[in-house]
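new request in #modeling-help
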Amino acid sequence: MIEYDETEKRMVFKLVYYGPALSGKTTNLLRLHDILDTEGRGDLMVLDTKDDRTIFFDLLPFFLTTPSGWKLKIKVYTVPGQVKHDATRKAVLQRADGIAFIADSQLSEIRNNFQSFENLEKNLTFVGLDIATIPLVIQFNKRDLQKIIPEEDIERVWRPTGIPIFFASALKGWGVIETFQMLLDKTYDYIDKRYSLQDVHGLSKEEFIQRIVRKKAMDH
Amino acid sequence: MGNKQDIQYVVGKEKRLKDLISESELSPLLNSALKAGICNITLKDDTGNIIVEAKQEGFTSGLSCQYTLTVEGEPAGQLLITSDAEELKPLADLIYEALRSIINSNLKRVLTTEVHSSVVTQSYEELLETNRKLKESETRYRDLAENLDRKVQERTEELKKAYTRLIQQEKMASIGQLAAGLAHEINNPMGFIMSNLSTLQRYIERLREFINTQAEAIRKTSLTELISSIEEKRKVLKIDYLLQDSIELIRDSLEGSERVKKIVSDLKGFSHIDDAKISIIDINKEIDRTLNVLIHEIPDDAEIVKEYNDLPGFRCNPASICQAFLNIILNALQARQQGLKLKISTYYKDGMIHVIFSDNGPGIPEDIRERIFEPFFTTKEIGKGTGLGLTVVYDVITSYGGGIDIESKTGEGTTVKLTLPVKGDGDV
């Protein structure tokens, strides 16, 4: 959690899209920005990219007000995937409340996926977070491409971990919302345990997700 | 250097409108707006506090346009622009747009600057840490390089010693097995050979007696011809010599057999065929006892110096430990016939009994030093030594977990150092 302000009645949470370089973290956010209604969210802020590679981070904020009158802000960030930007990743990862790990489905990227996941584990420990308890979902992106890791292989490797797995093509726009929704689902439980969203603030999980994942009318 | 877990800045910290706008930055815009005919510009944050205000002198009232300013998409403040002419609305819109873009670009700048400085600080600390580690490992490697030669030598020496010990142990073990089998096999025939030889000795005595009696009886008769022919035959066949020599032959054979028996018994001791009773003994007393046994072997001019210290009780088979002392002392006695000086000292230190025998004999020639514990290796004449003396010593001492160390200088003497560990239940 980034901020908890009793006087201003405000809670600010952080979700982070993590993953290897070029796995489509920014594309995921772009798609959310495209698909979701402008009401209840801010604009996507893309901070200084170079040749379409993220150097700092991207930010997509969401807002809602609880029945108790508190303002809830969910800031969704991406980290730079390139190995050299590890310090930035650590900085962005601090006080995160949930993580979507965006893996690249291409066969050539298996190693990078594992390295990035290891890096995530290491950096979570560094910033004092526990990978076993922090909300985490994994998305295997770029399912529209050829030469990708078969679904059975992914299932076999990742299912036993109990981490929710999603298959997506951020470029084509599918699987993105499902990933985000599951991340919110798990994050709600995580936050609810600490800040009693349901009991104190009267905000149910369904409402929480519904208020954030509001699709634009024209898309349907 | 700060604690790494305690990075001050957190990406995502909320920004207020006043964090993103400074009066000095805005004043050129506001001034030109006033010049263009705007009467009043007021910027308030979301709690209603005025952040910036600019107005024409003498302004009282006019037409107002109100805009909401957002930060990260959230309402963060109000912009109020008042003018006295309606056609100034596009100008107000323009001011709003300008302000919005200033806020947005400032937000981006602030965010990137913050991440950047946080990253730089962090990277700097990481660099310091890396540098420290590098220095540490450099010291380690330098140390290693400097001592490498010596360490390799030490290690090689250790390995060599361990290897020699191992070979020695294996040799001892296999010889022990062989000896046990051999001793058993030799003992049986030796038993009846010796018994038969003794019987044969008695038989020959009786035969000689009978022959002599017979010759005497014949001589007393008048059968001169017969007598002379028997005497003749007796001389030709050297019967008298034969009888005499038979007895000597048997006596020698019995002596030889005795020696074989001794070797076999040594072998048995060496391979622990007969494990006798274990008791707690005083090593000093046992050395004295051994010296008493050897009293006739010790030349009159030999000088035996005893330097005994109080020792704790030692748990062992007394016969075997005495055998070991005996073999060492015998070696010293045999090494020098005249002017022998043998010093025996004992002391107890750190759980170990030390027994040191030091003689002024000729020393052990360097070329055979490595072989002295080898079974059947001897420098003595055949028949004088079995070649098992030090082998037995080695075996006895190591069987109690002890050690044996021999130092020898050619022409100066030999020192045998025994160490025997005292187990808890052996303490007095």
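bot summary: Confidence is low (pLDDT under 50) at residues 1-7 of chain B.
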